[in-house]
Amino acid sequence: MAVSGSKENGGRLPEVVIIGAGFGGLSAARALAGLPLRVTVIDRRNYHLFQPLLYQVATAGLSPAQIAAPIRRILRGQKNTRSVMDRVVGIDRDRRVVTTETQTFAFDYLIVATGARHNYYGNDQWEETAPGLKKIDDATLIRRRVLLAFEQAENATSDAEVQRLLTFVVVGGGPTGVEMAGAIAELARKALAEDFRRIDPGTARVILVEAGPRLLPTFSEPSSLAARKQLEALGVEVIAGVAVAAFDAGVVKLADGSTIESNCAVWSAGVMASPAARWLNSNRDAAGRVLVSGTLTLPDDPRIYVVGDTASLVDARSVAVPGVAPAAKQMGRYAARSIARHIHTQSPLPPFRYRNYGNLATLGRKAAVAEFGPLRLSGFPAWLLWSLIHIYFLIGHRNRLGVILDWAWAYATYDRGARLITGSSE
Amino acid sequence: MAVSGSKENGGRLPEVVIIGAGFGGLSAARALAGLPLRVTVIDRRNYHLFQPLLYQVATAGLSPAQIAAPIRRILRGQKNTRSVMDRVVGIDRDRRVVTTETQTFAFDYLIVATGARHNYYGNDQWEETAPGLKKIDDATLIRRRVLLAFEQAENATSDAEVQRLLTFVVVGGGPTGVEMAGAIAELARKALAEDFRRIDPGTARVILVEAGPRLLPTFSEPSSLAARKQLEALGVEVIAGVAVAAFDAGVVKLADGSTIESNCAVWSAGVMASPAARWLNSNRDAAGRVLVSGTLTLPDDPRIYVVGDTASLVDARSVAVPGVAPAAKQMGRYAARSIARHIHTQSPLPPFRYRNYGNLATLGRKAAVAEFGPLRLSGFPAWLLWSLIHIYFLIGHRNRLGVILDWAWAYATYDRGARLITGSSE
């Protein structure tokens, strides 16, 4: 039954299938380079997306191509690996195959790294009004809506309509929500400030609604407070401790009975794992994430790994592994190393431990909050650090150069490089 | 009846409405800067598009934002001018108003610069199979189809299917068709060459079909021939003297009875003016262009100008003004100068004369053909000239810098910066 080395396969190399080329899947694939096995990376898109900068696409600071790189391009030098663009429709654990829309892929080892989508907690109809920010198409949709709001306000005939069009609601005070709110406020007050004749974009209201008691709940309280102060300095109105109750036409209703007249909302209040748990028919947590063992495998199947936002794990040091890019990368590398050990029939790895190198969130053009163990930064030093780290982790020298150029330009001029309203009208 | 100066308007400034912010409309708007009149530029998009480089977006070389600039940003320093994003639905010549979806705009002078769309010569149903290349959404659609063809070929199960997926048909041998064919061939043979495992992108066929006897009919015969040779050196198959008869599912039928199995076609075989002639209820030529007087106005209405691809004119030197960017810019500036004269009740301008500074078309990464009067260039010198000219005319220093960077990178590495398959699946 065991398929632990090439010999036991009748001479063929072990097949590793990786589903998803986000941070987790791609890290796993790279860590398998050069090993005596065949790796297949399946993704329904042709690019790896650097999601932490997606909010900059949504607010016209960067172009999609600057934060995305073709998966085949990234992996083309890795001779044991092939890349497949296809949509997975199921996993057959008994037959050991992954089925896509066009093919089936047999595996000896499987790494599921399919990420997460927004979680509307049962109110999926809210997505149309308040899209989330996970994909490039989400970002260009939000960019379209935000920029269009200013154009429509310029054409509007009543003050009430102008005010409604220039009110933006961001739901969820985690890093994405905080970054979106800061970026929209800066877009209105800086980049667009002098471009209109009838409206004053500087009067736009940006309202950040967080159901919990404070912003950035995974950060320390002082950092939360610093973030709130910096956002308020940018002109963002923060409402904490109140959940959204409903989205109606042009009105956001809050749980305390108050309402906000707005046509443009963004959802960043929670994520739900991809349908991987259903495919695997395995146990999952409330957010749909697969409950994995300490070695990141299914408890009853040590050759099926689940990593990144799709996995639910309290690690060996009782740390609940968060759904962030560094965790996904660490899990992807762990899964790859674990497979390599297994093939060489070495002793298994000790259980996975998440190493938290720090928390970072940016707040507009030159402020951020950062925490590295006991070290806390805020304001410009944190922003500088944030910029360096994000540029460093961007894949591909070309993207790095383009982003540096655009950021330097934006920093010097407040200009935004990607103010395009594209896509069909809704 | 005359509205020739501010006095005759009861003290109000003359209103100039410009419809369309392409090369013609934008040149007119800029030439009206600082004059004692009120200028309104109406466009249904929020950006000016540098159409001559659109084929590079369609072939993953550039991002949309690199060849587009927000109209309000371009005009924001021009205090007598406002920019309106709206869709024009009609022109009332008697009441002197332009009607958009949300408003009406009274005018004393009107400049119609609404450009052109593809012309399928009565076969509009071909557009779905063979889209043209005029808008950003066209370019991202074509980019999606071209890149997807390689991905689907990699997943295909039969050789016939691979061959069909890797056959690209470009219809029309004018500059756009020639540039598209060259860019697709290079994409296949260079940028994608090492990225696939099962297919060899280098085996892709790129077929350029031109109904007339030779490519680039507006160029001299030697340049046509040079273009054909350079394209063939890139691996493009040129079929001249044969028109397309029909597009069926997966098959392009030619007028000589032959067929080409292909799933991916691009249309660049002709243009049809925008519906402006209908709005104006004026005489038009076979391509729907408004027949204008020698001063670019309607023959019976000397305050309504039509410029650029929307106008049909044989100029004072019996030159039929072509539908190219330099002609549109010259016409836009002429209309603005003519209005300025009219307001100051100076003698009218002499009739418009098109100055042809030359013809240019690029053929892949380092070849082109160029003609400037008696001077003819081809190969690398022509390409260098083409690059310099296009960068010079790109609006906005930021875009110039970005394009230079991307071209330098592509030149050094053959890499393409925008290999994204985005948009909903069709």
From TrEMBL, chains A, B:
Start and end residues of each FAD/NAD(P)-binding domain: 15-332
Molecular function (Gene Ontology), one example: NADH dehydrogenase (quinone) (non-electrogenic) activity
Keyword field contains NAD: yes
Cited SUPFAM superfamilies: FAD/NAD(P)-binding domain
Origin: domain of life: Bacteria
Catalysis performed (reactions): a quinone + NADH + H(+) = a quinol + NAD(+)
Pfam families (UniProt xref): Pyr_redox_2
Keyword tags: FAD, Flavoprotein, NAD, Oxidoreductase
Entry-linked InterPro entries: FAD/NAD-bd_sf, FAD/NAD-binding_dom, NDH-2
UniProt EC number: 1.6.5.9
Entry similarity comment: Belongs to the NADH dehydrogenase family.
Protein's recorded name: NADH:ubiquinone reductase (non-electrogenic)
The organism of origin for this protein: Limibacillus halophilus
